[in-house]
Amino acid sequence: MNKGAEYALRGKMPQPPQGATAKPENLDATASTITESNESEKNGAKAAPGENPNQGPLQKHRVDSLGRALTTNQGVPVGDNQNSLRAGLRGPTLIEDFILREKITHFDHERIPERVVHARGSGAHGYFECTEDITSLTKAAPFAKVGKRTPVFVRFSTVAGERGSADTVRDVRGFAVKFYTEEGNWDLVGNNIPVFFIQDAMKFPDVVHAVKPEPHHQMPQASSAHDTFWDFISLMPESMHMVMWQMSDRAIPRSFRTMQGFGVHTFRLVNAAGEATLVKFHWTPVLGTHSLDWDEAVKIAGADPDFHRRDLWEAIEGGAFPEYLLQIQTFTEAEAERWSFDVLDATKIVPEELAPLRTVGRLVLNRNPDNFFAETEQVAFCTQHIVPGIDFTNDPLLQGRNFSYLDTQLTRLGGPNFHEIPINAPVAEVHNNQRDGFHRQAINRGRVNYEPNSLAGGCPFQAGARGFASVAERLLAQQAATEPSKLRAKPEKFADHTTQARLFWASQTPVERQHIARAFRFELTRVQTQAIRERMVRMLRNVDEGLAAQVAADLGMPLPEPLSMVAPPVKDPEVAVSPALSLFARPGDGRILGRRVALVVADGVSGAEAGALYEALLLAGAVPRYVGARLGVVRTAEGDELPVEVTIEAAPSVLFDAAALLPGKGAAALARDGLAVEFVQLQYRHCKPLLVPASAAPLAEAAGVKAAAGADPGLLVLPDDAVGAAAPAFVKAIAMHRAWQRQTEPPAV
Prior knowledge:
Helix content: 10-25%
Shape: globular
CATH class of the domain at 121-236 and 253-424: Mainly Beta
Family: Belongs to the catalase family. HPII subfamily.
CATH topology of the domain at 121-236 and 253-424: Catalase HpII,  Chain A, domain 1
GO molecular function: catalase activity; heme binding; metal ion binding
Oligomer: single chain
Cofactor: heme
Organism: Sorangium cellulosum (strain So ce56)
Mean pLDDT: 91
């Protein structure tokens, strides 16, 4: 060893020599153990001297499962991949189900740091106010008394897309509310659709894997219109009800402010006496339930992929605070037992005709986050976060979610102390014996971190009757006598996959039915495998013959035989038609808060009429904007200047809820501007309110719009000097959202 070669002596830079080596007399000297040469299927052969193969060719890592049975990651064959292990058919899921836990754990940890699902989100602060006394039903803190306000943080999201995907894709939307109560945090983690694709959490990784971009080429993004999703769906009849909702306009909401929310699962309310009542939670927007047109949604995704996020932010900043009613459906175990469907089945609803909605509070979102990452991105919702007065049922999907959500946060947010991140921290004080771990913030004093203890005076002590206590559920004696105590299976009522899908279809208006058929046509047209398209049409025949025939014709195929059913639909269901399932059942309160209205202007515009309409729309809570061919100003007929706030090119038609073509000598000149013509054309095609004064008739006609008074309630044709006076009628038309009467298939304009 030449130590002197390590130093720059007398100004000379050293040249490091090659290290000295010696060949050992026996290779056992270089081994970890002298038994290294004992080969096995696992260890393989002894390491070759002087060789590090690194990973080498990828061939040895490639896996092909053709002809192989499912196994766990430990290689254990999986006999049942459809059901989690439960204590009785309707009993709770057992934590000993290592197959479920391994599958869910791997799924939860697949993507870091983005959420596996619900990655694209928007959040807001606000409050929940109790409006009805339901202390006879629950002792939960938010409902302690009428008028009580509980701070909340709400996160809306898409499910399938990644963080950079567009807002207006066809997808389920998350609607998650975190209540910061004095008795701890309660997370009501729901969606804008009241049912789900699957009945058991065992299948959750499968449905998400199927809808995500296909793994071999990572396409398409934020879209269910591809083979793997429909392959899965066409083999899972239990998903039929959810697919009907997903193909409806519910999956392309106009905004988060006009979107319902649902708790999805059946929960329990528990009162101070320990008595339990079954409950389903609903969030109903005060502005009504409204959707986008599919063609419009696609165009918005290109024009403004942040459309929903921007709408929510701007509405709150502008004081048009989104508001929702919390409504509940309550029913007893005995009532639920008599129904033809099982309330523990997440693919089923409880029709409002069987359990009417009862308004118990309101949710108001009145403050935007200070920092997107610190709040919206780091907020952690867990279905298992409940407070005294709320409890679970044995819904197998909910039981699996209770494990999955906590497991997800442990990885995504860096460890067990994610509850100390400010947005997740409760307003209630935290006292327990948990210590240490990544990112620990609390500095716990004292020497005691166990219970019971005497060195800290027995503190912290268990709360006893004041604390959370699960409902003491008893299995039915008949069930206990006839069923194995542990099994993988589903109750018989879970086998009916069509009755409620038929209920949903029968409850839609003709316009909504047309949109559902169109959605199936689009999605299945993107599917490349003929057998999958055929299988889906076979499933649709079990829902409605007319729908199946329409989709088959649109796909250019003969009508195939219906798919065999596990169980026949209920012959005489409790509810055959439920008007509440239509979006049109909740038009809203008539206000147009936050609606964006384009006032199209050109030189020569009537400043008086423009100003009158602009002021009236502002007064009604809308967001009017002067839209022109170029930025700057236009000259009014009175000789003044009117500012152009945005251009037709930068803010196309799809970004506005309504449009008014303002009167003036320059309006007709816009008929020679292709962008202006397209602007009007799309307003009309998407059935939006459109105001057309006489001088703008040439522009309307260039767009193919026959400007005739009374053509439909959303088309206001009037003299130039009547624009300002027509403001109340225009506001009424905007509140209607759309004039669907003018829609044709294919579009006439």
